[in-house]
Amino acid sequence: MPDTPQTTGPSTPTSTRSLRLGIAGPVGTGKSSLIATICRALGDELQIGVITNDIYTDEDARFLRSAGVLDPERIRAVETGACPHTAIRDDITANLMAVEELEADFAPLELSLIESGGDNLTATFSPALIDAQIFVLDVAGGGDVARKGGPGIARADLLVVNKTDLAPYVGVDVPQMVADATEAREGAPVLALSRDDAESVAALRAWVLELLDSHVSGRHVPQDPGPMAPHFHADEDGGYVHAHDEPHAHDGEHAHGHDGEHEHGHDGDQEHVHDGAEGATPAAAADHVDR
Ligand SMILES: Nc1nc2c(ncn2[C@@H]2O[C@H](COP(=O)(O)OP(=O)(O)OP(=O)(O)O)[C@@H](O)[C@H]2O)c(=O)[nH]1
């Protein structure tokens, strides 16, 4: 009986792709602090990198670097120059380039945490940028916020009700807020968190590790919480309401939608397609402001 021939096919390419976890939520709810908490809880056992988004500064990146939770080189800032949702949903180019550079520089990176700038209840990440997302509320925003819904509250992979240590001071019933959130999410996970409460931090750590395990094993399927709800943009004429799932015009130059492929020109005579990660154009987020 002849020996079984050895197969000498092409070697398996080494993937440098990390689990990309987005953190979104209204201004000041504790997104940077939550990232610091994750880095403290997992930084010794996982290769972690962080991308922050601010409109005009690198404030959040500087906060995280000064917190000493990670090698400062592993914390990169994207200055969006525009509404935060623009850079995490509409034109993700700057963030995608930043996370790919981070993954290349620190390969093999296991976990990339991408923090959105503080926005409103309607902002969510594009699934072309991240694999999973956490939406962060805090008790100081009021116990009824969880009932207000929106794509992040309803369909993010995890909803965090943050700063529970402040609940007695702002008159919020945390179990009730968690119950309201769980109902709004039809049973999807809700975590009541305080960075000073070891038990809740352990639950956050376990959630991230379980997600990483299902990502590595190929069981995790990224979900899109859905496009932004119609919202208001102020301008010199008093502002207007628009939706991101309907075509609209910028300065009369072009019209496009935000929930899939679309074509538009940036100088009035060229057309190109945005179709997610591969097809995203280098049109700067700053040039892409909804007015
Ligand atoms: N009491 C308490 N305060 C917290 C907790 N987490 C964050 N904070 C405070 O909440 C404030 C806002 O926290 P950040 O982490 O900067 O919030 P953010 O969502 O990143 O803010 P933006 O990037 O400006 O939207 C800071 O003063 C934090 O110290 C917490 O668990 N308990």
Name the features:
single chain, 291 residues, alpha/beta, Rossmann fold, 7-stranded parallel sheet, two-stranded antiparallel sheet, 13 strands, 27% helix, disordered C terminus, binds guanosine-5'-triphosphate
Describe this structure in words.
The chain is of the alpha/beta class and 291 residues long. It has two domains: 19-216, P-loop containing nucleotide triphosphate hydrolases (Rossmann fold, 3-Layer(aba) Sandwich); 231-288, no CATH class. It is 27% helix and 19% strand. The protein contains eight helices and 13 strands. It has helices at 31-42, 59-67, 84-90, 93-105, 151-155, 167-170, 174-184, 198-216, and strands at residues 19-24, 48-54, 75-79, 111-115, 132-138, 158-162, 190-192, 231-233, 240-242, 248-250, 254-256, 262-264, 272-274. The strands form four sheets. The protein has a seven-stranded parallel beta sheet, with helices on both faces. Strand 2, helix 2 (59-67) and strand 3 form a beta-alpha-beta unit. Helix 1 (31-42) crosses helix 8 (198-216). The radius of gyration is 20 Å and the shape is globular. Residues 4-13 and 246-291 have low confidence and may be disordered. The structure holds guanosine-5'-triphosphate. The site of guanosine-5'-triphosphate has 15 residues, from helix 1. Belongs to the SIMIBI class G3E GTPase family. UreG subfamily. Residues 242-277 have a biased composition (Basic and acidic residues). One of its GO terms (cellular component) is cytoplasm. One of its GO terms (molecular function) is nickel cation binding. It is found in: Cytoplasm.
